[in-house]
Amino acid sequence: MTISTLLIANRGEIAVRVIRAARKLGIKTVQAHSSADADMLAVREADEAVEIGPPQPARSYLNGEAVIKAALQSGADAIHPGYGFLSENAGFAESVANAGLVFVGPDAATIRMMGDKSEARKRAQAAGVPIVEGFDASGDDALEQAGKTGFPVMIKASAGGGGRGIRIVDNANDFKTQAAEASSEAQAAFGDGTIYVEKFIPAARHIEVQILGDGRNVVHCGERECSLQRRRQKVWEEAPSTALNSETRKKLCDCAVALARSVNYKGAGTIEYLYDGRTEEFYFIEMNTRIQVEHPVTEMVTGLDLVAEMIRIAGGADLSVGQDDITFNGNALEVRINAEDPANDFMPFPGVVSGLRIPSGDGVRFDHTLFENYAVPPFYDSLLGKLVIHGENRRQALERLEKALAVLKIDGLPCTAPLFSALLRETDVRENAVHTEWLEQWLVNNSGKIIKESEVSA
Amino acid sequence: MAHEVKSHLPGTFYRRPSPDEPPFKEVGDSVAEGDVIGIVEVMKSFHHVKATAAGKVSAFKVENEEIVSAGQTLMEIEE
User: Given an 8 Å threshold on Cβ–Cβ distance, is A56 in contact with B65?
Assistant: First the structure.
């Protein structure tokens, strides 16, 4: 079936992004929103809007029943979950299907399989994808096993995600207390105290591969590097990764395709790896069964519209491209503009946008949720927009990013733009000599280099 | 005159450290200056609210999980 009306069960910049992709495909859009988001940009841009609940996410964007009811009442035949919220909730995907609606994403069984870390690892291993040595630490022999794996190790919540609650343990002495704490934290946060322990790879890079599947064929759209992270949240992403040689790149991408093909993957997905530059080894972390925040860097280098493609696939269409049709051109960078004050320990900062100046020009794209006098609500994540830059090479992309950041102006509240202006002055960043711990280490001694916009002389 | 403890941030107010735990403070409890009396969630980050005076909790002005604005009174302390 072809989708004729799409309900967007998300908010912020990704909701706007989905609406634009749907419109391009001639699909009518219905924006679901909480009462706090009645005036957001996506509501203004959609053909229709439906309120699904009060501001608290648990009572609106996470309320699957309310979302499905809104879709049925508005005559939508499909639901796009965006990222976060219900996007990787297998039970929700199932309910959507049971209601006779199309879920824009893989089926519930695939989401469930990939959402279960140990199941996903088994699948990866079976498809020939390298994995980091690790084990479920529920048994009494956890300490012994950790010793065998070799310290340092990383402890994660089996049910967790988004990097929350991860601990790194250097020695056997600390292991027991840290494991117990991690387990009770996991119990409180996810209702499941199961923890997972794996070998920790120091100075690793985060490299991920975008794939698209239609349930029959799978293609990759190259890799993205997202090593610059704070509190395990990505802040800067790019494509391609300059850390890979072409042989390693091919292996990474082929492995991603093999895994996706082994589960007859349908939709857009991302296979995440840790990459050890010293050994050129890569290790599967997880597969995300949704569109990712940083998808635009892939679009900038391939010319694909990933969101439109996932909607087409959900509607029953075949992939519009084969692997040989996907070519790579230049370098793309993305920086996340969050409503946080980078000069004040990234304190989140809801408020009213009193003035706005958006950069444009060759290779400049700004995916955002802003307009003048928009009141950024305190109830959701702080992402305001993503500044995405393309250049013929990385050097040109860096230059264009610097210029675009100088133009970008969001008055009324602090944002993370000054962080990126400061990072652009760092040799390690300019040369991409970074790893997933680099930014946190840099912030310890260099946050004074982040100059507030008000301090920049005009 | 009761001392008012205000929220310094807008967001969602929680009286408990987590949904399964008892509230930080109940009416009638004694508090010391600096005691954590609640949490305000703003943009998915959690910030402790601390008592700004010592005394006895005389009233809560907002419920658990209620939406608060910056500067809103959360609790009153009888000094």
Answer: yes
This prediction has a pTM of 0.90
Residue A112 has pLDDT above 90, yes or no: yes
**Tally of CB atoms within 10 A around A272:** 18
SS (H, E, C) A198-225: EECCCCCEEEEEEEEEECCCEEEEEEEE
Compute the distance between CA of residue A404 and CA of residue A366 in angstroms, rounded to an integer. Answer: 10
What's the CA gap between A387 and A307, in Å, rounded? 18
Cβ-in-10-Å burial (0-12, 13-18, 19+) of A441 comes to exposed
Output the CA torsion sign for A39, A40, A44, A49: negative
Cα distances (angstroms) measured from residue A339 to each of A350, A411, A418: 7, 11, 12
Amino acid at A293: V
Indicate yes or no: CB of B44 within 8 angstroms of CB of A339.
no
Is there a catalytic annotation at residue A290? yes
Measured CA to CA, the distance from residue A313 to residue A418 in angstroms comes to 39
Question: Reduced to 3 states, what is the DSSP secondary structure of residue A221?
Answer: strand
| Paired strand residues for A208 | A224, A272
Q: What span, in angstroms and rounded, lies between the C-alpha atoms of A180 and A174?
A: 10
DSSP state of A131: B
- Cβ contacts (< 8 Å) between A380 and chain B: which residues? 43-44
| Residues facing residue A154 across a β-bridge | A168, A198
- What is chain B's percent helix, strand, coil content, to nearest 5? 0, 50, 50
Under the banding of pLDDT at 50, 70 and 90, the label for residue A455 is: low
Residue A271 in tokens: 């296979």
Locate tokens 């946008």: which residue?
A353
ipTM: 0.81
Q: Which two tokens stand for residue A64?
A: 């699957």
Mean pLDDT, chain A, integer: 94
Secondary structure percentages of chain A, helix, strand, coil, to 5: 35, 25, 35
Dist. CA A129–CA A244, nearest whole Å: 17
Closest CA to B34 of B77, B67, B72: B77
Residue of A264, A156, A175, A159 whose CA lies nearest to A216:
A264
**With the CA atoms of A51, A56, A61 and A62 taken in that order, what torsion angle do they form, in degrees rounded to the nearest 10?**
-140
Cis preceding-peptide flag for A240 (omega within 30 of 0): yes
Burial of residue A42 (CB within 10 Å: 0-12, 13-18, 19+) is buried
- Mapping DSSP onto H, E and C, the string for A424-454 reads CCCHHHHCCCCCCCHHHHHHHHHHHHCCCHH
The secondary structure of residue A126, as a DSSP letter, is H
Tokens in use for A277? 């530059």
Task: Select the residue of B12, B20, B45 nearest A56 (Cβ to Cβ).
Answer: B12
